[in-house]
Amino acid sequence: MLLVNLVAIAVAFATTSALVPLIVRYTHFKPLMHRSEDGVRRPDSPLVPRLGGVAVFGGTVLAVAVALLLRDTGVRVPIGWIGLAPYMIPAATIVFVLGLVDDVRGVPPLAKLIAQSLAAGAAWAAGVHIDILAFPPGTAIALGSFSFPVTVLWIVGVSNALNLVDGLDGLAGTVTLIALLCVAGAALVLSNNGVLLLASAMFGATAAFLRSNWHPARIFLGDSGALVVGFMLSVATIEASRRPDDAVLTLVPVLALAYPLLDTLISILRRFLRREPLARADGRHIHQQLVALGYSQPQAVRFIAAFAAILGALALAVTFATPAVSLLIAITALLVLLAVFAWGLRWLRYDEFSEAGAAMLLVARTGRDRLRLNILVRDLERRLADMTSVRALDALLAESADGLGVVHLRLCRESARRRLPEGASHRAPDAYKVDVPLADLDPSDPPDPVVLRVWARSADGGAERVARMLAPAVRDKLRAWPLEQVIDFLPHTRTGAARAPASRE
User: Fold this and answer.
1) In what order do the strands lie in the sheet with 247-249?
2) Rounded to the nearest 10 degrees, what angle do helices 297-320 and 171-189 cross at?
3) β-pair type (432-439, 450-456)
4) What span, in angstroms and rounded, lies between the C-alpha atoms of 459 and 113?
5) Second label for 99, Cα 20 to 30 Å away, from 35, 138, 231, 307?
6) What is the Cα gyration radius of the chain?
7) pLDDT tens-digit readout, 212-269
8) How many C-alpha atoms does 90 have within 13 Å on its Cβ side?
9) Which distant-in-sequence residues (6+ apart) come within 8 Å of 104 by Cβ?
């Protein structure tokens, strides 16, 4: 068993090491197969080949093939992977060809998503299922008919997440090696030996590629590499974290791939908050923000690698831990992620989250006040129904002002004196007034409707909200009384206007 995995690492490492210089030499005079170091094509930027995926995929496939051939010579090869390999290699090939075409000519996002989903479906058909999700301290959720969409979503999501973090020299390769170490550890502890051959082949190929991808890079993974590595990682993390009862230890794959998943989640949320297309590149991933803050590319990669290694260690610890300890690990991981959101996003200058947080805090602070106001208005509406005269109604409104958070409430004609009563003016000398027309109770010339007049201490002091909420109930009550009673209490006050006979509209 150990011999087979060592052979796979050696073959993958040697094959990828041999292919990288050939690819660099072949693409030297082919600008379409290059991109600049910062991902932006400029005449003065050094061009670097982006077909590293050819070397990585070639090394991985050849290593698996050699290991399978060793089985014919009597060397024991994990039977689990033997049954899976004939289906997995074609599925991974779909992703590799997709990425290769995208590197050379470009592929529309929808076409890429369809091809990735087909490859994920082929992996599911080959036996890569997420049927049961296991959470600490012993909770399990059977997915049933949701097994297929969840599996496809995981595979496609991880494939694209790793592709998104391939933005600094050595970053994607370093994150991949850390995740593969977690895969190997979890597979050994849970006796999932069938995935070790794949992990070993990928480890050898990625390590060889990283020698030429470290800053300053001689070659990039490209989509042909990042997508296919992400695809195989997504499969490996599922199979490595599978318990004997077929449940997948959910924390293991999530923590092993925490950095690419977190970066993708942050990118989606940022673009959502900005109301921008989710597929649009904006050059503001975590690694790019670190460089913008003044870190060099190697410093940024080491910083991210340390973060990924810490969470990877937690993922590995889950496979050894008892249910109670697993719960503690889950809480620790959650606290780390919350710290990233609370402090890291501000440090990385993601203003979208600062503004969203401020808006949510404002809602939290004002939500209780709004609820209280709604309750008070509903109570006041019920009391309005018991009023028997306009005078009593006006008095009830005036005495309810303080409870509603405004300076003064009254019924009056639009032309009535616009200043606050003496008793209220000293509390808010610069009060803000709102009039809501209730009814034209008599056809005066010019019109002088009855209004609900509300004063507040400022323009945002709630006058408009209170007036808008109370107006319908007050209007209905006024229309229920005889017209003469309303006019007698609220006479026409506009200077020089002729009083017309009382009549309803």
Assistant:
1) 139-142, 132-135, 247-249
2) 10
3) antiparallel
4) 51
5) 307
6) 35
7) 999 889 999 999 999 999 999 999 999 999 998 999 999 999 999 999 999 999 989 8
8) 10
9) 32, 33
How many angstroms separate the CA atoms of 253 and 151, rounded? 12
Question: In the prediction, which pLDDT does 31 show?
Answer: 55
CA separation for the pair 88, 124 (Å, rounded): 10
Cα atoms in the Cβ-side hemisphere of radius 13 Å centred on 148: 8
pLDDT digits (tens, 9 = 90+) for 315-365: 888 888 888 888 888 888 888 878 877 788 888 888 887 777 777 777 777
Structure tokens at 269: 């949320």
Domain spans, the chain:
2-349, 368-489
**Rounded to whole angstroms, how far apart are CA atoms 294 and 300?**
9
Q: Within 10 Å of residue 356's Cβ, how many Cβ atoms?
A: 16
Average of per-residue pLDDT across 366-394: 86
- What is the Cβ-side half-sphere exposure of residue 384, based on CA atoms within 13 angstroms? 23
Question: Is-contact 459 422, C-beta < 8 A?
Answer: no
What's at 97, amino acid-wise?
A: V
Tokens standing for residue 253? 């794959």
Question: How many C-beta atoms lie closer than 10 Å to residue 308's C-beta?
Answer: 26
- Cα 385 from Cα 481, distance rounded (Å): 12
Q: Do residues 18 and 204 touch, judged by C-beta distance below 8 A?
A: no
User: Which has the closest alpha carbon to 12: 126, 169, 180?
Assistant: 180
* Distance separating alpha carbons of residues 255 and 333, to the nearest angstrom: 8
CATH topology of domain 368-489: Beta-Lactamase (3.30.450)
Question: Which strands make up the sheet holding 408-413, listed edge to edge?
Answer: 408-413, 450-456, 432-439
